[in-house]
Amino acid sequence: MTMSNGKRLHGATVVIMLLNRLRDFIIPIIVVFFVGATGGGIGLFAMVALPLLFIFFAVYSFLYWLTYWYRAEEQELHVKQGIIVKKHRYIQRHRVQSFDMSAGILQRMFGLVKVQIETAGGGSEPDVHLIALDREEAKRLRRKLLAKPQEVERAEEDDGEPVETDDDERGEEGLIDPEEEVEASWALGFKRLLFAGMTSGGVGLVLSAVLALFSQVDVLLPEQFYESTIGLVLSATIPLLLLAVFLIALFAWLISIVITIVKYGQFTVVKRGNDLVISRGLLERKQLTLKVHRITTVRYVTGILRQPFGFTTIYVESKGGGSADEQQSTILVPLISRRDAHEVLEKFLPAFVVADRVELKPLPRRALIRYIIRAVIPILIIIVPLSIFVPFGVYGLPLLLLGLYLGWLRHRAGGVNISDDYLMLQWRLFNLNRAIIPHHRIQAADMVQSPLQRWRRLSTYSVSILSSMSGKSFEIQDIEASRGEDLLAWYSREVETPDFTREERKEKSPI
Amino acid sequence: MREAPAKRLSKKALPVWRITGFLESLFYLIFPVGYGITMVLFDWPLWILYLLILLWIIVALLQSFIVPAIRWRRWRYEVYEEEIDLQYGVFIIRRTLIPMIRVQHVDTEHGPIYRHYNLAAVSISTAATVHQIPALSEDIASDLRDQIAVFAQTADDDE
């Protein structure tokens, strides 16, 4: 029976899975622990529930390992899994789109690697996820799955997936391939990594986490300490309180820097032939291989904190690839000065370099009021009830000014233009985004007008492109109605493309 | 500006949309009914019930007469050799272009109400989006489907 089933994962899988599960549960466990502490039920919980949970996970992990079989055959990979419901999966070799070897901390402890195999088609999970394999075994598997096929199919662009023909061994970290020539490479470097961390804008997120943690901690502290602290806080002078706030913010900021460093440490991009290999991560190395011809859009994202320093981030959208913590896009270059961005793009994705620096056409002035209203309304929704029901809530009203400013910023940032076969869109939510979308990557184009927009002769233009799993759409709101029509005509294959370089007489119309 | 596409949906779309619009408006009955029940239980004022009933009648009229009429008047489509041009919307008007080379497949579908009126809807799928032309007469729908399929096949990929 064993022989016909194929191979099991490495035995350490059980331990790795168990630890992973416990890690996932650590926050709920802590929360229950604290909540339990107030109710006096901590003893019961710690003595019964925790060991039960542990045993359950241990048994589950063991059974998972016991029932997981995989076998690489001539033309396909066969995976059999399932403790109660048995699942068989056959993956055609020529359908394999990416084969990623990586090693988390747990895998590294045992000197093993994790393998994720993806095929074309949707799903947020990788199609096959082998939790722990011998490095040698993983390499053997890759050689088997990615070996050059006998007949090289002409890969069709949109549905047929290109055949991966890279059958060479990659280096120790799966990075360096001696056979294929490295055409271009780029590394983040520590200085920039640090700067990226300092300006990541993740402070707010971490701050809320820190505050939540503090609000949990006070439950644990003895009442006496609590009372004396309250006394201390109440008697403290305002400078002291400000200092405390400052320290907490500083703490959150430092944590956000550490998070960035761990996530994007040792970031490198290497271009080899048709592949872009992006590696990142300090503790857990992540490696992603993107095919150049599968990239559908390049996007520059300039964070509010980075804008004054002239730094930007380059994202790419691609069919396949894209990770959850980057909103299904992929970071190609985490931090680069705007001057160098052009050069780097030329090296890695020359197809996306827009011929000459074409200026964006700005939004019409009459769109400004709409942008401001859109920015102010969400603030009003929060502020108005707050100032009615909460004492001192009125002090939130200055936030309205912030809304006005944001609306003005968004209006100023918005712009669109055409350069030959490229659509350039620029918009701001908080960060400044500029997307470069080739005509032949657009799946469908829309021009939308609401009754109010019709009245103001404005329109919203949007295009859909293919991103990691499904579509993604980019839009620009409240452009000149005639510009929307021109953009639609530019996309059309039936109508002659209007001349975008001609000057705007419509711009000077009243209203 | 390029002309709005010329072709319209079947006239029979109107009765279908009136029916579905009315059925949809039945859903909003839960507001007056729910209020009626709580009103009896908690002794709440009666006039709100009348107001809710009035509102429901307005919504039902809108849904079953006015919206279908506007929607039908707006809906235009045109299938060219290289692209499909759609214009639709009740209050917000949307104009969509789908190039033939992006079309992955076309389907016709009809539910029980459509079948009763000999209607069908044509769905056009690209890799990233799905678009539907509703309420075409069955013959036109199947012709359109076949035609799009042919155009989609012959459209040259320029990549």
Automatic annotation (TrEMBL), chain A:
Ranges of biased composition (kind: Acidic residues): 154-176
Ranges for region Disordered: 149-176
Domain of life: Bacteria
Entry keywords, A to Z: Membrane, Transmembrane, Transmembrane helix
Transmembrane region(s): 25-46, 52-70, 193-214, 234-262, 367-386
Magnesium is among the record's keywords: no
Pfam families: bPH_2
Every YdbS-like PH domain range: 65-144, 271-346, 415-491
Name the UniProt record assigns to this protein: Putative membrane protein
Gene source species: Natribacillus halophilus
TrEMBL record, chain B:
Transmembrane found in the keyword field: yes
Keywords: Membrane, Transmembrane, Transmembrane helix
YdbS-like PH domain segment(s): 72-148
Keyword Membrane attributed: yes
Record InterPro entries: YdbS-like_PH (IPR005182)
A Pfam family the protein falls into: bPH_2
Transmembrane segments: 21-42, 48-70
PANTHER family, per database record: UPF0699 TRANSMEMBRANE PROTEIN YDBS (PTHR34473), UPF0699 TRANSMEMBRANE PROTEIN YDBT (PTHR34473:SF2)
Stated name of the protein: YdbS-like PH domain-containing protein
